[in-house]
Amino acid sequence: MKLHDLKPAEGANKKSKRLGRGAGSGKGKTGGKGMMGQKSRSGSNPYRTFEGGQNRLVKRMPYKRGFTNIFRVDYEVLNVGDLAEWPAGVEVTPESLLEARAVRRKTMPVKILGDGEISVALTVKAHKFSTSARQKIEAAGGTVVELPWVVERHSRSRGPNFGGRNAKKKAQA
């Protein structure tokens, strides 16, 4: 076999359809795109899940794609191993963690996770603790204090909303 004997396999090379090249070509006039409508126009079609403007299935079903839980709480996360460098007997609070730049945002609750080891007795105040973090801190002789975290739910009208059953009590408080 020589180079001039080589040729592609049967059916490997296929001529492309030449669209819109006259009535005799079989793909003239509309070029195989039918008559009128969004899909006959140039440019991209609507996205795969488009249902003609109706709220699409992936948005209607929260367990499918496209659902965001509006009640989700994001935490500033810190590991027990990061607290090992703190001096013994110190009270670790979200404010002191913010000063030490161990956490970044003061608007988010702090959660302590159990990655790493701790041998220093500390009083740790945070909004949430993992079970392993709680065990490690208490095993080192420290104490765990869980702080309350109240999520402020704002009125959708962007102002105070004292309507409803206990409107007078809420307005006075």
TrEMBL record:
The keyword Phosphoprotein does not apply. Residues 77-145 form the Large ribosomal subunit protein uL15/eL18 domain. GO terms for cellular component: cytosolic large ribosomal subunit. SUPFAM superfamilies: Ribosomal proteins L15p and L18e. Transmembrane segments: none annotated. Residues 1-51 are annotated as: Disordered. Residues 21-35 have a biased composition (Gly residues). Keywords: Ribonucleoprotein, Ribosomal protein, RNA-binding, rRNA-binding. InterPro entries: Ribosomal_uL15, Ribosomal_uL15/eL18, Ribosomal_uL15/eL18_sf, Ribosomal_uL15_bac-type, Ribosomal_uL15_CS. GO terms for molecular function: rRNA binding; structural constituent of ribosome. PROSITE patterns: RIBOSOMAL_L15 (PS00475). Coiled coil: none annotated. Gene3D superfamilies: 3.100.10.10. The keyword RNA-binding applies. One of its GO terms (biological process) is translation. HAMAP family: Ribosomal_uL15. Belongs to the universal ribosomal protein uL15 family. Binds to the 23S rRNA. Part of the 50S ribosomal subunit. This is Large ribosomal subunit protein uL15. The gene is rplO.
